[in-house]
Amino acid sequence: MGGFGPSLTMSSVERFASGLEEWWEIMPHMRSDRAFFGSTVMNEKIYVCGGMSRIGELNSVECFDPETMQWLPVTPMPAAVSCATVVSHANEIYVIGGTCRGQDSSFVQIYHADTGTWDFGASLSATRRDAAAVVVSFSSAEHSFIGK
C-alpha cells in the first residue's frame, strides 16, 4: 500500500493472491497518496493513518472495506503525523508517537470507532518514531508492548 514510486508518493494497493497465476492482484487505490503511514486491521477492515505526501505530513485516515472493495474516509486525527506506530484493540485505534511538524513525538492519538472521534491518551515517556507495537492476549488480560 502506498509508499514511494519514481520521485513521488503513491496511492496504489496490491495484495498477494495465492490462488491466481499472478503473484499480485491490483486493488482499488487509496483516496490519498501517502508514504511513512501506519496501518492496522480492526473489525475486518484495513485502516491507514497519517503518513506523508508531497504536501507534507498528513492527519487523514481512511479505511478499506473488503466487502464493498472501497476506501472510505475516516475522521481525521487531531495532529498530522508520519512514521507513527499504529495498533488496534477493543474497537479503538492507537496512533503512537511518530514525527509531527518535523519533530519526534511522544503523544498517543486514540480513535474511538463507536463514536467516530479522536482524543489524546497518556504521552509516552520519551519521543518515538518508526517503532513497533503489538496487542497480546494472555488468558483474560491483554497487554500492549512497545520497545525501549
From TrEMBL:
InterPro entries in UniProt: Kelch-typ_b-propeller, Kelch_1
Transmembrane segments annotated in the record for this chain: none
Superkingdom assignment: Eukaryota
Keywords, comma-separated and alphabetical: Kelch repeat, Repeat
Descriptive protein name: Kelch repeat protein
Organism for this UniProt entry: Ancylostoma duodenale
